[in-house]
Amino acid sequence: MTTNVPVIDAHPAVPSLPKNYLNCSAGFMSWAGTLDHKRIGLMYLIGTGIAFLAGGLFALLVRLHLWEPHGMLFSNETYNQVFTLHGAFMVFLFVIPAIPGSLGNMVMPLMLGAKDVALPRLNLLSFYLWITGAVLATLAIILGGFDTGWTFYTPYSLYTDQAVVSIGLAVFTLGFSSIFTGLNFIVTVHKLRAPGLTWFRMPLFVWAIYATSILQVLATPVLGITVLLVAFERLYHIGIFDPRLGGDPVLFEHFFWFYSHPAVYIMVLPAFGIISELVSVHSRKPLFGYKLIAFSSIAIAIISFLVWGHHMFTSGQSTYAMFAFSFLTFFVAIPTAIKEFSWVATIWKGSIALNSPMLYTLAFLIIFAIGGLTGVILGSLNVDLHLHDTYFVVAHFHYVMMGSIALAFFAGLHHWWPKMFGVMYDETLAKIACGIIFVGFNATFIPQFIMGSQGMPRRYATYVPEFAGYHMASTCGAMLLGCGVALMVYYLVASLLQRKPAMENQWGGVTLDWQTPTPPPLENFHTPPKVVHEVYDYSTLDLHSMQRPIS
Amino acid sequence: MSHDGHHSVVVPAPGPEFVPHTVAHHFDTPVQEFQAAKLGFWLFLATEILLFGGLFAAYFYYHEMYPETFKVGGHQLDWKLGALNTTVLLASSWTMAMGVRSAQTSQKQKTLMFCGLTVLGAAAFMVVKFFEYSAKNEHGFIVFKNLFAPYDEATGQLAWFQPHGTEMANVPHGHMFFAIYLTMTAIHGLHVIIGAGLIVWVMKGVAKGRFHSGYFLPVDLVGLYWHLVDLIWIFLFPLLYLVP
Amino acid sequence: MFALLTQDPAKINYVADPAKAPTLDAFGQLPELASTFGHVDGLFYFTYAVCIFFFVLIVGVLLFSVVKYHRKTFDQPAASNVTHNTPLEVVWTVIPLIIVMVMFAWGFDGCMDMHYAPHAASQNQFKATAKQWSWTFNYPNDPSQSFNEVWIPVDKPVQFVLESTDVLHAFYMPSMRVKRDVIPGRLQTVWFHPKKEGEFHLFCAEYCGDDHSRMYAKVHVVKQSVYDTRPWDQWKDATPAEAAASGESLYKQICASCHSVNGTPSVGPSWKGMFTKQGENYVGRQREVVEGGAKKTITVDDAYITESIQKPDQKKVAEEPYVKNAMTAFPTLEERKIKGLIQYMKSLADAK
User: What ipTM, to 2 d.p.?
Assistant: First the structure.
């Protein structure tokens, strides 16, 4: 994290640039001890970005290993550690914290017209808890790694001779980082909205972050106590999850998914928020069905607490439980479908700018359609009995977590990059990278759908030879995807060095985040804003601000 | 934050022995600051309850699975000591409430006295807890020195649970009751200690005159925390000591 | 770290002899159905078709919009500023709702079919015991067990009682469309009605540790007449040579994953050199073991091998690199089979 900070400081912005949050003070402590939400957001961006690249590296190793049926690189044990690392890094260090931590921190207070989040010190504490969690996770690797899968299913996680306690504490710490972020954002939305900014004038990104925060606060403590109990179990054998001692491993599954199913929405709701913003701005059209989208976020948040059992259809639950969980699972498909339809309807008859954030958004809409629809296939009880724990599930949740969430994150990053740094990246390279990522991603996971429905189980270090062709195709796709991400990292970092100035209002947004100077000053707004228009009212857009470079 | 050219709101002190309070720069009014912190703290308390909720769920699950174990296990606990501790905590909740009230009315000495009494209550609670744990240790229900000993797979014996010659030896998975008892009361005990530490920290602020009728937020929040600690015990006591 | 990046050949645990690949069904998505659970395929393809319809619809509208309405000049306003259309929103809420409710009912109905075994299946009850990392099968009214391979009669409903002796596993047969977790301490069952003869995959589908991917069994669905010949028990031990041959086939099923016969150390010691031939007699080698915490040197003999198979922890090998590895116990292995294994072990010392 600290290595990148000088990159920003070493190029003391173009001399004419007015004082902003990046150049108002310098030195290590001005960053490490900052209470400014934008700087904290930036540190989150760097931290979660590094975690994403590390997790991606593990993914490429996994794919390379599976090039041959008997495995190409590792022993089975090492393979198990590598896929566990991929899952744990991606889920706990990247997907959950990335969007709220970086873009949420950076943009949400701006959208509210606030000077900061409500509890800035707690915000910094969240970030340091994240760092502590990352250090503990890395420590677990140094202590010999862990091979439990990111789900830590008992009793295997109790018996394996690996660093489970260390990663358990890492997850516990990261959980509290997530709780504090959520708590902070809820308070901020309730208490720090600018005058005139009623609930139904809030941009949908704020709504999405708000729904996410509720989930973070209500679901994460259960994960906290669960991993803590696993740690106790390993330290002094309480027996709660240990069948040798009369415990029930299925209870662990209930505890784990009670958190981890809502966690799926903790991950995906912020992505929905980003897409809602971008679809509107880049189509220059008010969002279709604003209230329905806002309510569907809340509906998803509530229903998501009641569907955890659909991860356990094969564990022999009672038929009543299966009935309820399957029914509610199908039910959650409806608000999700409403969102997708509303985004498409927003683009319809819009003024569609085909710039890189919009291309990432279109890629999201296509990939999320596949990710969501394949979820419906898995929701059916009898079909799930066949597909559960196969590559079909792997492909499905990658379409949601990597294809949708990471792509939405990239879309948001490209959208707010000029706002954050006042510089523009190379648009041509960005469009090329988006294309490579889109093609590479689909090439990776479409073969996984096929082999999954043919019966290829997940978490296999070796496999029966009939699946070799699909695995090779998938590995090729993953390499292409890796190249696309590498290209993206390259031009984004290059843009910080080349310092091609951005426009005042690069994309023509009308929410409050585009009505501050670029980059924003430390206190966000020189004069406290008042909101008089409805949200997404493009008749108020000053078109010339899109063509005026920042000065 | 004066270097931004922003002037924060200042709440005047009610008397010479008190210090004025400067509202954080991103709030417009002290009321906004108070409400934001209070909302945040209530949310935090909700997460605490959910954290214990997992333990309660485990308690009910195994109570259902091994009713005999929980019945006999409950009889091994001394309900009189539990009741004593309940009384102590209830009393300390009252002293804490009085402490908050005194801070709101800028009565420095009274605030210090009530907060001090609360800390004493916390200490008394931990002392009683110590005696209870010692008794469990003696009976072999929780052998503390063996707590972290590895599990012996060959014999299937837990080193920390040696109930030989007691009723607990005859019930299925007798350790389950004491594992849950220990985990719940230890985590609760940790909360008592943290709560007492927070009260001491608040008392330092009170002594310096930082908290008064114009600004008593930290006293208020710590008070809420203490009531939560009390509340959780109110559920633990009947479940562990009385329900069986 | 670099050592992690290279494969240790001794630790490759790969299913060398799986069943041959099942043929795929007409759409190429699912393996050809070999049981009566056709409702899985029906609902799968119905949902698939619905998904393709919606996917084409969404992508079609997107592409059309991008082509027709993309921004030509930077100040081009949107062609329409409609923010809602209640009838349209009701339609796209209600129609998907109806469709998913159909799917739900269809899926639940099918699940009930798979959940409750018919009487005939529970009369034809097999037992599958899962442990890290192998399957052991018991047959109805038959004393013999088989390992990582099981024979069932075609066209007769069958039920498997599932038991785990250590961690979570799952019983998964793609061709039969069945999957069920195997949970230590809980009774789990699964049933199906095999309709096709052939060899089928049985995978472990719940992650269970190092060799999860090697936890594989081959399921032979055979005619009743073939089943009646008890193909899982082709044990012959009339002569020492026959016993050694039978022992060798059993070795390949249950021992080969941890014990080599060519001297290469694996998870456990190699069987090569366990006995040497002196004249007509086989003499066991010396071995350092730990018994009851005490280290001692013993001479390998029939009694020691038998004990090591039944209770491997009794006298644990104290030599590197096997010290930290524990052997799986086979307490119920029949005596004649243990004798066959010993005979095979001894035959390794013959000639060559």
Answer: 0.90
